[in-house]
Write a structure and sequence with these properties.
The chain has 274 residues and is α+β, with helices and mostly antiparallel strands. Helix content is 39%, strand content 15%.
């Protein structure tokens, strides 16, 4: 998340001002909220110095912009992971009212220029984080079929509807090909923009798409976004008792699913922005 303030005009919008006041009421003081420039975010982010330290207030985007996000599911997941060394510290998640208050954990690895992404310490923390997630096998589930149905409804009237429907069919076929593996808590969006280092500790942000899911999707993201090799993943819990061939087959399928999901997500974003 960037610290660069934009125009303060958004704070005058009734929807925004109401949520800023609600956060102030929770904190018991009036904060000097500054809009943060946050490339790639659908939500509106504000930052202020509060009694607990440096704070971030997220004002949730509408379901039209935050496509496929289930705020109740996100709230359940955030409650589940609170206290984990890699979890963002949430002070208040008023998801029904449309805002979330948390501690600021520093610039993302993307904003930091990526210099820490390939450090051995960060790689080790990232792998340990994914291993921790794979040990969490009881959590609210992410509904892949509901997401596919949502994409289908949203994209069916587009000019390129036939191409999108073909992509959706590929996605359904790919999900049908997932082996009968144990599901685990899955983040589903592990690019470097959602990672930061807070005094050397890896913190993972943006749990909007998290839920019980196929953990190999996160592993494929590690290979795509963090310059790791497949054999770096062999020590992860889900790889136990699998051959190298079976691991490679799952990673290939997961990478294909991630690619299709990304393609569809950008198609929806293009529709929203024109």
């Amino acid at each position: 998340m960037s610290d660069t303030p934009q125009s303060q005009e958004p704070t005058q919008r009734p929807f925004v001002a109401e949520r800023l006041r609600a956060a102030d009421a929770f904190l018991g003081a009036r904060m000097d909220w500054r809009l943060m420039l946050a490339s790639g975010h659908s939500n509106m982010l504000f930052r202020a110095q509060g009694p607990q330290g440096d704070l971030v207030l997220r004002i949730n985007a509408s379901s039209l912009r935050a496509f496929g996000v289930d705020r109740r599911l996100e709230a359940d997941v955030l409650r589940l992971i609170q206290g984990a060394r890699w979890a963002p510290r949430v002070l208040c998640n008023a998801w029904r009212e449309g805002w979330l208050l948390m501690m600021h954990h520093g610039a993302s690895l993307t904003e930091a220029g990526g210099q820490d992404v390939a450090s051995q310490q960060t790689v080790e923390q990232l792998l340990a984080f994914v291993a921790d997630l794979q040990r969490i096998t009881e959590s609210p589930a992410f509904d892949y079929q509901a997401l596919i149905a949502l994409y289908r409804r949203r994209l069916q009237e587009r000019a390129a509807a036939a191409a999108h429907q073909a992509c959706l069919q590929q996605l359904e076929d790919a999900f049908s090909a997932i082996p009968n593996d144990t599901m685990a808590l899955t983040h589903h969006d592990l690019h470097s923009g959602n990672l930061c280092l807070d005094q050397g500790q890896l913190i993972v942000l943006d749990w909007e798409y998290a839920g019980l899911g196929w953990p190999w999707l996160d592993m494929a993201s590690l290979l795509q976004h963090h310059d790791l090799e497949a054999d770096d993943l062999y020590a992860l819990p889900v790889c136990a008792n699998l051959s190298a061939k079976e691991i490679e087959k799952r990673l290939h399928l997961a990478a294909h699913i991630n690619q299709l999901l990304e393609q569809l997500w950008f198609a929806v974003r293009e529709e929203q922005t024109g």
